[in-house]
User: Which sequence fits this backbone?
C-alpha cells in the first residue's frame, strides 16, 4: 500500500472527497442507538460529526427493520484503546470504524477482518460511486479490507483574520514568514499558534508537513517501506530541528502539553483571538462553525495550505491527513451479522441524507458527483478550498499514526511529545524511531 497518493488526484480520476477530532484522556461510551439490532457498530462521538453518523445509522435501521444495527459512541482516544482490546479478545463489534493504513494491516495479519475484495468485485457500482484514491488505505497487499466512508480530511492552516488585522500582518507565505510572525504576535500577548499537545497527534501534523515540504513525500515513504535508518534522512533531521526551533521561540500557546484536542479547547483559543493560527484537520471548520458563535459565519476565519519551506524539495501543493475513514467487518461476526454489515455498506453509507448532512458540517463527502451540492452550500468557499487541495495534490500523505503499525505509531507519538517538550534531540528522536521501523 503506497502511503503517498503520488500523482493521483481526488478529481483527476473522477472526483471525490474525509484522523478526527481527538479526545479527552478518558472517554466513555455513549448511549446505544437501537438496542434491538442484530449487528453492532462502534464509532466516534463529538459534534457535529457524531450527529451525522448517528443519523445515517438511524435512517438505515428505519428503512431495514430486519437488519438493525446497534450503535455505540466513544471519544477518539478511548475508542482507539477499546477497539484494539476488543479485537485482540475476539470481541469486536460487527462493524469496525477506523482510518485504514497500518492499524488495518495489523488486523489483517491477525485474521480479524473480512476480505472484501470479491464483494466489491461483485458490486462494482458501489466502488465506482466513491472517490478512487480513498481505497489506498483500505487496501492491504492488493486486497480490499474496508469500505471507505464519510469525508476527505486534509490538514489545514487556519488563522484568525481579526487578529492578523489588529497586529497589522499578513498570513505566512513561507516557513521564514512563520518564524518572523512569532515575536510580532507575542509582543501583543497573543499566542502565535494554538495546539492541543496532550493529544499528541496534533503535534504530529507539524512534522508531517515539514517532512513533506523539506524533503518531499519520499522521506516518510521510506519509513513506511521499512528502509533502515529512514528517520535519519537529512530532511527528517532538518524538519525535527525546525519544529524545535519554533517551540523554543515560543511559537505555541503556553501549556500546550496539557491541552486536549478532544475538549476543543485548542480551537476555542483560535476563535476567541487568544491564538493567531492553528494547524488542524478540515473537520475543525465544522467545530469552529458549531462552537464559535459568528466567527465563521461573520468571516473571521481564514485558511490556507501549509506554506513552503525555503529550499525544500516538496511540492507546496501537497497535503497530509485522511483520504477517508473506513469500515471493516469483524471476521468473528456471524454470517448473518456479516450480511447485515454488507447491506449497510450498500444501502446505508453515504446515502443522500448523509451526504447533505456532511456538507452541512463544512465537510467534503467521499462521494463522486457532489460538485453542485458543494457549490450550493453556505460553506461553499471552504468546501471548494478543501476540494481543491485534495483534488490538486500530487501527494496526499496519510496521517502517520494510521499509516504505521500500532507498535510503531505508539513509539512515534510518545517521542513526538518528548520532541515538543524539548526533552530529546532530533538525533535521539530519529534513533528511537529507527528501532521500530518495520515493527
Assistant:
Amino acid at each position: 500500500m503506497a502511503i503517498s497518493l503520488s500523482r493521483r488526484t481526488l478529481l483527476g480520476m473522477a472526483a471525490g472527497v474525509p484522523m478526527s477530532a481527538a479526545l479527552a484522556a478518558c472517554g466513555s461510551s455513549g448511549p446505544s442507538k437501537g438496542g434491538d439490532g442484530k449487528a453492532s457498530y462502534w464509532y466516534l462521538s463529538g459534534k457535529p460529526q457524531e450527529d451525522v453518523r448517528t443519523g445515517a445509522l438511524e435512517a438505515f435501521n428505519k428503512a431495514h427493520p430486519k437488519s438493525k444495527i446497534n450503535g455505540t459512541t466513544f471519544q477518539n482516544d478511548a475508542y482507539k484503546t477499546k477497539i484494539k482490546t476488543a479485537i485482540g479478545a475476539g470481541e469486536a463489534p460487527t462493524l469496525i470504524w477506523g482510518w485504514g493504513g497500518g492499524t488495518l494491516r495489523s488486523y489483517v495479519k491477525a485474521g480479524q477482518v473480512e476480505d472484501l475484495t470479491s464483494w466489491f468485485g461483485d458490486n462494482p457500482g458501489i466502488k465506482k460511486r466513491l472517490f478512487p484514491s480513498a481505497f489506498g488505505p483500505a487496501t492491504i497487499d492488493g486486497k480490499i479490507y474496508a469500505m471507505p466512508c464519510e469525508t476527505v480530511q486534509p490538514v489545514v492552516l487556519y488563522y484568525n483574520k481579526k487578529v492578523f488585522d489588529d497586529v497589522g500582518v499578513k498570513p505566512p507565505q513561507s516557513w521564514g514568514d512563520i518564524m518572523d510572525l512569532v515575536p510580532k504576535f507575542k509582543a501583543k500577548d497573543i499566542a502565535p499558534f494554538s495546539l492541543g499537545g496532550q493529544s499528541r497527534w496534533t503535534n504530529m501534523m507539524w512534522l508531517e508537513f515539514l517532512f513533506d515540504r523539506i524533503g518531499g513525500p519520499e522521506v516518510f515513504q521510506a519509513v513506511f517501506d521499512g528502509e533502515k535508518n529512514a528517520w535519519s534522512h537529512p530532511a527528517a533531521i532538518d524538519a525535527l530541528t525546525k519544529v524545535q526551533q519554533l517551540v523554543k521561540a515560543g511559537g505555541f500557546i503556553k501549556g500546550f502539553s496539557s491541552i486536549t484536542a478532544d475538549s476543543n479547547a485548542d480551537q476555542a483559543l483560535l476563535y476567541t483571538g487568544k491564538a493567531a493560527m492553528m494547524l488542524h484537520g478540515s473537520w475543525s471548520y465544522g467545530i469552529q462553525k458549531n462552537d464559535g458563535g459568528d466567527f465563521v459565519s461573520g468571516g473571521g476565519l481564514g485558511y490556507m495550505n501549509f506554506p513552503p519551506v525555503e529550499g525544500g524539495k516538496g511540492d507546496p501543493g501537497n497535503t497530509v491527513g485522511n483520504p477517508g475513514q473506513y469500515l471493516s467487518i469483524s471476521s468473528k461476526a456471524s454470517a448473518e451479522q456479516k450480511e447485515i454489515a454488507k447491506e449497510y455498506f450498500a444501502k446505508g453509507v453515504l446515502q443522500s441524507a448523509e451526504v447533505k448532512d456532511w456538507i452541512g458540517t463544512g465537510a467534503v463527502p467521499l462521494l463522486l458527483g457532489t460538485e453542485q451540492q458543494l457549490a450550493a452550500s453556505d460553506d461553499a468557499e471552504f468546501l471548494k478550498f478543501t476540494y481543491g487541495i485534495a483534488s490538486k495534490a500530487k501527494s496526499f500523505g496519510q496521517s502517520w499514526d494510521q499509516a504505521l503499525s500500532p507498535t510503531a505509531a505508539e513509539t512515534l507519538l510518545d517521542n513526538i511529545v518528548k520532541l515538543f517538550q524539548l526533552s530529546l534531540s532530533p538525533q535521539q528522536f530519529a534513533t528511537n524511531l529507527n528501532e521500530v521501523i518495520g515493527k
Observations:
- The chain has two domains: 39-152+323-387, 153-320+400-434.
- DSSP finds 19 helices and 14 strands in the chain.
